[in-house]
Specification:
By secondary structure, the chain is an all-beta fold. It contains one helix and eight strands; from the N terminus they run E-E-E-E-E-E-E-E-H.
Length: 142
C-alpha cells in the first residue's frame, strides 16, 4: 500500500466540472494553498515562470481501459494513450504559470481541476529538462 499526505489544496472556480486542459487566460481565481509548514519550501520558487502541479483526482469516476477523448473525433484509444482523469491511480498533472506567491499561497493561471482538490506536490517547470523539442503528438497528429 502506498499512502500520500496532501501538502495543501487547489482552489479554482470549478465546482462540478472542469475544462479538459489548463487555459492560461481562464477567468476566476486559481491558487494552491499549501499547509503552513511547507511555506519555507517555497523559497526561490517565484524565480520560475511555470510550475508542474501534481494532485489527487478525488472525484474521478470508474476508469475504462479504452476511452474516447474529446480531441479524438470519436476514435477509441487506450487509457494510457489519453489524458483522461479517470485512472487506476487518480494522479493528475498540470503545468501552470506562476502569477505570484504570498506566504503559503501560489496564485496561478487557469488549472483544469475542481475546487478543493488535494495537492500532492509541485515542481518547477525547467525548459532545459522538461521541453522535448522532437516530441510528437502521437495519435493526435493522425
Amino acid at each position: 500500500m502506498i499512502l500520500y499526505d496532501p501538502i495543501g489544496v487547489i482552489n479554482t472556480p470549478y465546482i462540478d466540472t472542469a475544462p479538459f486542459r489548463c487555459e492560461e487566460d481562464a477567468e476566476g481565481e486559481f491558487y494552491l494553498r499549501l499547509l503552513p509548514q511547507f511555506q519555507e519550501a517555497l523559497y526561490l520558487l517565484e524565480k520560475f515562470d511555470y510550475l508542474h502541479v501534481l494532485f489527487h483526482i478525488d472525484r474521478g469516476k470508474h476508469y475504462k481501459l479504452k476511452v474516447n477523448p474529446p480531441n479524438a473525433d470519436g476514435q477509441e484509444v487506450g487509457l494510457f494513450a489519453s489524458r483522461s482523469p479517470n485512472r487506476p491511480n487518480p494522479i493528475g498533472l498540470s503545468t501552470v504559470k506562476i502569477i505570484k506567491i504570498e506566504k503559503n499561497i501560489i496564485h496561478t493561471s487557469g488549472l483544469d481541476v475542481l475546487d478543493n482538490t488535494p495537492l500532492l506536490d509541485i515542481k518547477p517547470y525547467i525548459p532545459a529538462i522538461d521541453l522535448k523539442i522532437n516530441a510528437n503528438s502521437g495519435w493526435i497528429e493522425e
